[in-house]
Design brief:
single chain; EC 6.1.1.11; Serine--tRNA ligase; 2 domains; 424 residues; RNA-binding; 8-stranded mixed beta sheet; Helix Hairpins
Length: 424
RNA sequence: AGAGAGGUGGCAGAGUGGUCGAAUGCGACGGAUUCGAAAUCCGUUAUACCUGCAAGGGUAUCGGGGGUUCGAAUCCCCCCCUCUCUACCA
């Protein structure tokens, strides 16, 4: 969430950022926040003063008791009783005000970086570059949902039987391709300087709040209510929350982690056209990269992550394009997001396979993730993450783009990982 | 899952109602000493919020929440977690 200090000291810039986001009630919400913040300060001051007096009296009473002056002690207790009522009233109101302030702050999205193009929808996203030639397929080329049946490598019906729609079963070469991609992505991340972590795929409520999935996107996560745990929609949640409530020593920065996890998304209400086959699933595999950096380095880190992801797509020989998301299409918590899309030759459309974002201090504020600059006050760090990469749509593009009469010819980078070169 | 023990500052570890934000040790940092270092000595060594131009002052925090009390790290209740034993399991 945004820092109150920023809202207070740079109100105009905040309002401009929210306007770029098309946030309708910016003026009113910001005013409400500023009023609540002022009220919070006033209450804190009165509370502290009353408490300070009570503490002083308690000390005096202690002295009187020791000296055996019971009557004197009783006299002071009268005042102390009043103060107790006061501080109690103050702290109750303070709790209420803080809670309301918190809720108001949760409502505000992150401010877009200056390079974010203004826009309302995906149509307004900026195509930064397009790399690689789109393959020319034969007239009878098949979409991946037909190919997976033809080669019997992914089985939706079976997944449907044991779980439900959107939970495919990978079989034979299909299963091995999954494992190969995961290993390939993890190795590439490690070579690029990311430390590998393996994290739980169920997280508690605090973690959900830390990275911003809660409270806004509650319905998007599977919730194991018996234990009040959430199945992660992305490894971003556990990996970033590893550093919740931490103050990181400068020499530990930047933090660069990579991890593979299955991801779970309810995708409530988002089914429709274009979601056949692997295009949208409830469970899928993904390798995620996360960076935590000092504020001044975060945009260089984002470019660095982007370069890494592009390198993966190039090694997979997939044509792709890089989008800079416009202000209306960016996720709530992001300050700048690049989406990477691969060309799916049989479907004749771009498929999003990665999203790399800089959240600046938006998550760090919730996470209380700070560092201590040399001889300075603690400061919030910047958090970033990117998919590197999400498997299903990569698989869809690999299958479609590389289909031949003799089978699906996989890119050279995967041969040693798969143990085969062609899916037959 | 059952029984018992326990959760204190970066770490170790005292502290069972009254200057306890907390002894002591270690570590770290600054200084003295040294040609330099080790050792030694002196000092510093949490976080958040409020207040103040600042220096400073104040409040809160001893796993989390609530309660008793003039006063709680210390007493009571609930929850979480860790360890040991038993049971079970991969």
């Amino acid at each position: 969430m945004l820092q109150v200090s920023v809202i207070r000291e740079q109100t105009a810039a905040v309002l401009a950022g929210l306007a770029k986001r098309h946030y309708a009630t910016a003026e009113a919400d910001v005013q409400a926040i500023l009023a609540l913040d002022q009220r919070r300060k006033d209450l804190q001051t009165s509370h502290d003063q009353a408490q300070a007096e009570a503490n002083e009296l308690a000390r005096q009473i202690g002295g009187l008791m020791k000296a055996g002056d019971k009557a004197g002690a009783e006299t002071l207790k009268v005042r102390t009783g009043e103060l107790k009522q006061q501080t109690k009233a103050h702290s109750e109101e303070l709790t209420g005000v803080e809670k309301e302030l918190q809720q108001q702050l949760y409502k505000l999205p992150n401010l877009p970086h200056e390079s974010v193009p203004a826009g309302r929808s995906a149509d307004d996203n900026e195509v930064v570059r397009e790399v690689g030639a789109k393959p020319e397929l034969a007239a009878d080329a098949k979409p991946h949902w037909d190919l997976i049946e033809q080669y019997d490598i992914i089985d939706f019906a079976l997944g449907n039987k044991i779980t439900g729609a959107g939970f495919p079963v990978y079989k034979g070469q299909g299963a091995r391709l999954q494992r190969a991609l995961i290993n390939f992505f993890l190795d590439e991340a490690r070579h690029a300087g990311y430390a590998e972590v393996q994290v739980p795929i169920l997280v508690n409520e605090a973690s959900g709040y830390g990275t911003g999935q809660l409270p806004d996107k509650e319905g998007q996560m599977y919730h194991a209510t018996a234990d009040d745990l959430y199945l992660i929609p992305t490894a971003e949640v556990p990996i970033t929350n590893l550093y919740r409530d931490d103050i990181i020593a400068p020499d530990q920065l930047p933090i660069r982690n990579a991890g593979y996890t299955p991801c779970f998304r309810r995708e409530a209400g988002s089914w429709g056209a274009h979601v056949r086959g692997l295009n949208r699933l409830h469970q899928f595999d993904k390798v995620e990269i996360v960076q935590i950096t000092q504020p001044e380095n975060s945009y260089a880190a984002l470019e660095d992550m982007l370069a890494h992801i592009e390198g993966l797509l190039q090694k997979l020989e997939l044509p792709y394009r890089v989008l800079r998301l416009c202000s209306g299409d960016m996720s709530f918590t992001s300050a700048l997001t690049y989406d990477l899309e691969v060309w799916s030759a049989a479907q004749q459309r771009w498929l999003e396979v990665s999203s790399a974002s800089n959240f600046e201090t938006y998550q760090a504020n919730r996470l209380k993730l700070r560092y201590r600059p040399e001889n300075g006050k603690t400061q919030f760090l910047h958090t970033l993450n990117g998919s590197a990469l999400a498997l299903p749509r990569i698989v869809a593009a690999l299958l479609e783009n590389n289909q031949t009469p003799e089978g699906i010819r996989l890119p050279a980078a995967l041969h040693s990982y798969c143990g085969f070169e062609v899916i037959r």
